[in-house]
Amino acid sequence: MLAGEPYLASDPELVKMHLHAQQALQKFNSSPPGATQERHDRLKDLFGALGPNSEVKSTFRCDYGSHIFAGERLFINYDCVILDCNHVRIGDRVLFGPKVQIYTATHSLDPAVRKDGWEFALPIEIGSDVWIGGGVIVCPHVTIGDGSTIGAGSVVTRNIPPKVFAAGNPCRVIRSVGS
Question: Domain with 153 in it: what CATH number?
Answer without folding.
Answer: 2.160.10.10
